[in-house]
Amino acid sequence: MSRSSRMKLWTHCFPCYDDGNRSGNRFSTVVCSFSDDVLPSLGDTTHQPPKLRKHLVSPYDPRYKVWEKILILLVVYSAWICPLEFAFLRYLPRAPFVVDDVVNGFFAVDIMLTFFVPFVDKKTYLLIDDPKKIAIRYLSSWFIFDVCSTFPFHSIILLLFNKHEYGLGFKFLNVLRLWRLRHVSSLFARLEKDIRFNYAVVRFTKLISVTLFAIHLAGCINYLIADRYPDPRRTWIGAVMPNFREDELWIRYVTSLYWSITTLTTTGYGDLHAENAREMLFGICYMLFNLWLTAYLIGNMTNLVVHSTSRTRDFRDVVQAASEFAARNQLPPRIEEQMLNHICLRFKTEGLKLKQQWTLDILPRAMRSNISHCLFFRVVQGAYLFKGVSSSFIHQLVTEMQAEYFAPKEDVILQNDNSSDLYLLVSGAVDILGFLHGAEQVYGRAAEGELLGEFGVLCNKPQPFTFRTAKLSQILRISKSKLLGIIQENLEDGEIIRSNLQQPSTNGYLPTIKSSATPPVHRTASHAHASDSHQRAEFSELTALLAARLLEFFSMAAASSKVLALLAAVLVALVAATAAVRVLEEEAVDLGSLAPAPAPAMANAAGAVAPAAWAAVAAVVSLLAFLAH
Fold first, then answer.
1. What's the CA gap between 186 and 192, in Å, rounded?
2. CA of 580: how far to CAs of 280, 569, 574, 599, 605, in Å?
3. At a CB cut-off of 8 Å and minimum separation 6, what does 10 contact?
4. How far apart are the C-alpha atoms of 156 and 282, rounded to whole Å?
5. Within 56-194, where are the H helices?
């Protein structure tokens, strides 16, 4: 399928899709309202992208969106010129109304076009493209108002009566053009849902637009009252400008706006005030309206400010509570610093701009799996422990992994802790620390792509080291239960993991360990496992040596007492058997946490038990020989 075909298909399936947007946000919410989306009914398995009938215009067509934007500009012009013509242009010239007729022509075309634009049913959320239903819906809703706001009353009067001046009744008919402001209201409703625009900026723009229009409309109406009053000197503007009708239009308009804005803000200086009952009555109505408008403006402004500062206030409260907790419990400065760094990092990563974990949690599991596969598959596949395993095993791992951020000098794993999670360092650096003679020393540093805590998780052993971040680090985490569950479901991959854990040198995994006051230590689980096995072998050899010495000692005393010789043989056999049983149990625990132990592992266990076993055999043989003697 070609790219252009896919674009057309996406446009039908996803009304929010806007391929013309190159700013990085391909899904534009300017043309998307969740209440207008076309949704299939529940259980509908044959839902296909809507195919409109002939001669119909899709409401999501980009060309139709351009047409709507042109209408918005014409609405702004109508909102400004309509009150101005109503109040100031008493003797109406022909020139301004030529532009009005052109604007009316555009809206007349929009009325006819509306009969060919499908709509979304509010109950079924389906796109209705039946021409009859479209016509009935429009005729029963806004058709009458749209026609009245578009009808050219002034041109008709000129043709019929051939005069430019007419009464207020005909002027009120022209005021019906303000009905077109509903287009601006729907525009702001869409802009508020558009993530490409800052919500606070859109909201402020809307509030300022409402305020300016109220000031403009009130100033025009108040001037109209003064202009139509029988005695011009007994008007609010005639008291300071006796011949105000002879002044320029600009001066009269600015004076009207000055009165309107001083009355709106209740800071009138007394220079312009009502002089007759008509003006007093309008002033009362205007100030009552100002009470509602002021409350509306203050309420919206307050909500915007509170919304923008609420997170900062919450962050300061959490930091203050953490500091007081550390001081009250006399925690060391290092722990307090880790607490504050973690809070600051959480504020940054889970703030308004990121919210990564929140975004992943609201998505379906399959979508989260695809995202994790795209982000972390190569990182997990490159870890030494998972080299050679199947791709399906890696896919199961990355699906269960969670990405976390750790601030500098924050402990990831503590020494001698029974770790319940396996960690993989994606970016950053982690220091490997250990306590020697009561002092904390650095053994090395884990680089990007290395595992943390795999020995404790897979071998059921306490962690041999403390892992502490050296700088801001991103780490993947998977719980021990989920990891072992995936291994049990993939036994062949479990064998590979166990082999990688025991023999890291075969796959080239040797973490970089820097020199320090103590000798270099290789931080690998298999190295530690080999050292432990070596210690068990030494224990078995010492046990065998002890049994031999006891046997020799009591053999010397056997000539004088058979009972003593019998007790000596039994004691030697018990010591050797106890040592053999202990070594076998520990080997079974280590190998049982993964998959069933293969032949090489059993050979290691047998080699460790052999000295103790031979001591037990020697003791039994000696006992039998002595009894025969």
1. 10
2. 109, 17, 10, 19, 10
3. 17, 19
4. 32
5. 62-87, 95-114, 131-139, 143-150, 153-161, 168-175, 181-191
Spatial separation of the C-alpha atoms in residues 273 and 118, rounded to whole Å = 52
DSSP-based three-state secondary structure for 423: strand
Distance CA 491, CA 508 (A): 23
User: How far apart are the C-alpha atoms of 557 and 569, rounded to whole Å?
Assistant: 12
Q: What is the full DSSP assignment across 175-210?
A: HGGGGGHHHHHHHHHHHTT-TTS-HHHHHHHHHHHH
209-217 long-range contacts (CB < 8 A, ≥24 apart) are 209/184, 210/293, 210/296, 211/264, 211/293, 211/297, 213/79, 214/264, 214/289, 214/293, 215/257, 215/260, 215/261, 215/264, 216/80, 216/83, 216/257, 216/260, 217/83
Given a cut of 80, whether residue 149 has pLDDT beyond it is yes
Largest CA distance in the chain: 153
d(CA 342, CA 231): 76
Residue 261 CA, chain-centre distance (Å), reads: 43
User: Which residues, in sequence order, are bridge partners of residue 442?
Assistant: 433
| Helix/strand/coil percent split, the chain, to 5 | 65, 10, 30
d(CA 36, CA 120): 6
Q: How far apart are CA 22 and CA 61, in angstroms?
A: 18
Measured between alpha carbons, how far is 426 from 420 in angstroms, rounded to an integer?
Answer: 19
Please choose, from the candidates 422, 525, 433, the residue with its C-alpha nearest in 3D space to the C-alpha of residue 476.
Answer: 422
What pTM, to 2 d.p., does this model score? Answer: 0.53
Which sign, positive or negative, has the C-alpha torsion 183, 185, 186, 187? positive
Q: Is the pLDDT assigned to residue 10 strictly greater than 70?
A: no
Measured between alpha carbons, how far is 432 from 465 in angstroms, rounded to an integer?
6
- CB of 75 closer than 8 Å to CB of 183: yes
| Residue owning tokens 């900026």 | 201
Instruction: Characterize the bridge pairing of strands 466-469 and 430-436.
Output: antiparallel
Q: Tokens 């804005």 identify what position?
A: 261
- Residue position matching structure tokens 């607490």: 339
Check whether 477 has a pLDDT greater than 80. Answer: yes
Coil, strand or helix: which one is 88?
coil
Q: What's the sign of the alpha-carbon dihedral 489, 495, 501, 504?
A: negative
Of residues 54 and 238, the one with the higher pLDDT is: 238
User: pLDDT per residue over 90-140, tens digit each?
Assistant: 655 555 677 888 888 999 999 999 999 888 887 776 788 888 999 898 898
Chain CA centroid to CA 324, Å:
31
177, pLDDT greater than 70: yes
More confident site: 29 or 347: 347
pLDDT tier, 619 (very low <50, low <70, confident <90, very high otherwise): low
Token representation of residue 159 = 């043709």
In three-state secondary structure terms, 501 is: helix
Q: Which two tokens stand for residue 472?
A: 């801001």
